[in-house]
Amino acid sequence: MAVLKRGIPKQQYMRVDEKVLHWIGVRKPANESPSNLGYQSLLLALSDQMLAVGLCYLIAMYAQVCKVSLYSFYIGAQLGYLSSSVHLCTLLVLKSYFRRHPKQALLRGGLMMLFLGLLVATLILEFITLSEPRDRLFLCGLQYPRLPRLESMGVRCFSIAVMLAFVYWNAFRSIKLDNSLRYELENKTSKNMILQWIYSGGQREVDFRKYLEYKEKDNRQRIRKKAATLEQSPGFWKTFTTVTPLIVAEMAASVLFELLVAIFSFSIALYTLVIGVFYQGADVKPLLTASFGQIMPMLLLMVIALTAVEVGTIKNFRRIEIEVEIKKHPALLHNTTRGGFGPERNGALSSRVQSLNLQNSMMGVTEDFSLQNLAPTYETSFLPIAAASHSQPDLSGTAGFGARVDSMTRWMTPRRRTTIELEEGIRSILPAAESTLDLLDIALRSAKGITYAAICLVLFLLAGYFVACFLFYQRARRPQNENSKASEANTHMMQAMHQFQPAVTSYPR
After folding, report:
1. Where does the record locate the signal sequence feature (predicted)?
2. Total H helices, total E strands in the chain
3. pTM for the complete prediction?
């Protein structure tokens, strides 16, 4: 809902996101500083609760590992995995929040690493003991197996580790500490921060800066060379190898892709939990009785409901945050403008500049605006309005011949500036090289067929990965169900043999 209702900054939306959202009927434009931040408060509370609950599940289970049955261990592992999946689903909306609070991002990252280690170990142990009867103790089933282990156990454990690593990599992008909200395939911000810390001080820092300048210059030259090659319409293989990394980067940076991976992980966790609870021959009637163990978790859900009610009563979170920041730091108002208030005609404008700079300081945007920068724009006030009228999307109906077409109605075209941006004199967030040399846009013009073939191939491989994960889980659960049915049949047979066994009569001497 936060993605559809534009509750996240527009820097997180890629061109493919705008295209898909336009296809499903979303017409509301994105904003750099969205005012409907109620999603953040609600999902932050849910995220903290799910992270704490999942860690408590796993730690409590390992504390009682000598007394836990295989069935209880399986349910505890799946509950921990479900809590982890719900927690990871909330991080997408909290990306801008963690950028403003880097210490909380570091703490969250440390807890997630602990959670990931416990979860990988738990799921691997669960797969090792998956063929054992569910009523045995966990340690007995682990050390003294009665039935043979599943085939290809090493491959199964490696697949579990790879899947969890991929899911957590997708989530860790939401708590990264760089200033950009976008994800880039060749993003080296973390690497450069580490290298800058290593080579800090003296001549080494100067050499490191020269190295960064050289790498940036070399990167620009490579982009220009690739653009010139694509303009000449090269052969199939040359175009395919050039375009495919660009498509992968566009897909990986997509908000919808990040959301799709999180939802898929949640679906797998819910599916395995339902299979484990209702389709393993266990008696679930005690779970439905009114006891402390069943009532207490349900009462804890009231925290989420109360948070949702509190969030629903507040209309404009952005205005409240600005008022709180002004009360905490009154000097921000004096530092927002550099050129003074100027004449009276710029009085209303100065307040808008102050508000904009204050929002940018809260959101982490390193751009300051002054009345001097806005003066050339407002001296010709008719020009921005006329220019903006050609850059606004036609969202009133279906686009036809002669209608204005925006980036949402064209496949992968650069985003144009809105009316508010032109009036306020906001510069584009993307660098100039990206707006002038868009390799994917050039490929769509010069080699449209090859580019769309590469897009279809990437989508096919992505869908194949999801299907393979689902089939892997379903195949892994099939021997477990067969073994549970076999053990249940053996139990019934033993009871029948016990019932018809003749009684032994003892006579006194």
Report:
1. none
2. 22, 0
3. 0.62
